[in-house]
Structures are given as structure tokens and as C-alpha cells.
Amino acid sequence: MLETFMAQINPIMPYAMLPLSLVVLALTICHAKVMFNSWKSALLMALSGWLIAFAVEDFAIHLTGFYYFTELMGPKLDVIPFSLPSLWVAYIYASFIVTNLVLDGSPLPKNYGWPRMLAGTVIGVLILTALDLIADPIAVDNGYWVWVHSGKYFGVPLMNFLCGWFPIGGMTILLHYVQLRRENIPVLEERTRGVQICSLLPVLFYGFFLVFFLIYNFEHILGLAALFAVGIPFAVAVWKWGLWYNEEGYGTTYEVTDKFSEEFIEGINEARENEQK
Fold first, then answer.
1. What is the SS3 assignment for 134?
2. Nearest to 204 by CA among 225, 234, 230, 224
3. What is the dihedral of CA 108, 269, 265, 252, to 10 degrees?
């Protein structure tokens, strides 16, 4: 069913991929602004991820010539489609949130020590690469990019993961941790319930790919692979998010946005404290 759908939409993808990727990028930046409580932090995260993805991919293609992107990916800057690094930012961000939930039980890190940041980088790369293990064969099969010499993994060379996604993903995720550490981002436990609920959206974005992979079930085997490779971190992240959200329940106070609301908000917070007692 999805194979037929992909074949039908392929003719419009050269025109749709760029606007689609820009919408995804804009939504990612807006969500990061809510999470980090700073436009500067959100834009810096997106810009660094975009530039790293573009620079490494551009360098790799010119250096090796092992692969190239087709017109299905949309307009290009040099040999790299604009859509590629734009979508990369969203993939990295979703994997970053999932990783933090898996390790800390919180959408944002609770500890910015180097051991924690390095552990987050390693786990984050594995969670990110789990997506590509399923997505890359599907993209190659549908003609979004081409490997000049076909690899052993459903036509994809293993070096794509070992020499591509691992170093690029690790570099980007570690940079995100260092950035948040330097900027002293406020913890979500001190934010409103609406912001805390919003923190689940990147996890659901990650889960969207799981559903897609299961339905597509490339070569009648990668659906099962996705169930474990993508499904396990997704399930753990959702479970830990639920625990985190419920634990924060009455501990979270409302933010006061104007003087008129001050007495009303204080009354709600006092009522919560009394109920806890």
C-alpha cells in the first residue's frame, strides 16, 4: 500500500520536498524555542546542525563520489539538496529529546557533566542511526539518492552508518549538549504544564517514523527490525515521559505573566500545597 503511495507522490517531490522540509525545520525551531525559553538558543541549535550536515555531506560527495542525490530531493546548493540538512535538524532534535528521556527521565538533561554528555552522545547516535537503518534502504529504493556501488545492506554500504551517521550525529549531539550547558537553559520542571506537555511532541515525531516503517515493512523484514531498533527507545521514552510528567504534577507552579493574575495564581499554588499536605 505505501509502496504504491510512494510511487504516486514521487513525481511531485522535486517541488514539494523543499517547502515540506522548511515547514519541518520551522516547527522544530519553534518547539526548541519553547523548550529552551530562548530564540537565540533555538536558532543556534538549528544553524549549527544545518551547517554540520551540509558541510560534511558536501565534502563527502566531492571527496569520494560514492553517492549522489537525485532531483526528488528538490533544489540543491552545490550538490546538496536544501531539504537534507533541514530535515537533519529535526531528526537530530527528536533523537536528542528521546535520548534525554531514556537516560535522565526528563526531556532536557538534568546533568551537564562531561560523563553524562558523552554518554548522551553515544546513546543519541545509536537512537538516531536506528532511524537511518530503516529509512535509508527505503529512500534508495525509491530513488531519492543513489549509491554508485551498491552495498550489502539492502543496497546501502555499511560505511554510510559507520563513517556517516555516527560521526555527523555524534558531533551535532555533543555540540547541542555543550551549547545548553553554556547557556544555562532553565529546567522544564520549573515551567508551565503546557510547556511540559509540549515536550512530548518530538517523541511523537520519532514515533511517526516507527509507524511508517511498520506499515511499509520494506522487503518484508525491516518492519520487524524497526519494531526493535526504533520501537524500544520510543517506548522507553514515552514511558519515562509519563512518569516524569505525573511526578511533576502538583510540584509545578504557574508562571505569572502580569500583575492582574498574581493573586489568582498565588491562590492556585497555595491550594496545591494544601492538597499535598
1. helix
2. 234
3. 10
The distance from CA 237 to its chain's CA centroid, rounded to whole angstroms, is: 13
User: What pairs with residue 81 in β-bridges?
Assistant: 76
Angle of CA points 238, 241, 247, to nearest 5°: 145
The C-alpha angle 169, 55, 37, rounded to 5 degrees, equals 60
Among 82, 226, 66, CA closest to 158: 66
**Cα→Cα distances 198→57, 70, 89, Å:** 32, 35, 18
CB 251 within 8 A of CB 189: yes
Q: Give this prediction's pTM.
A: 0.87
List the chain domain ranges: 2-248
CB 100 within 8 A of CB 241: no
The candidate with the shortest Cα–Cα distance to 89, out of 176, 178, 199, is: 176
Q: How would residue 226 be classed by pLDDT, with cut points 50, 70 and 90?
A: very high
Beta strand pairing call for 80-81 and 76-77: antiparallel
Is 60 exceeded by the pLDDT of residue 257?
no
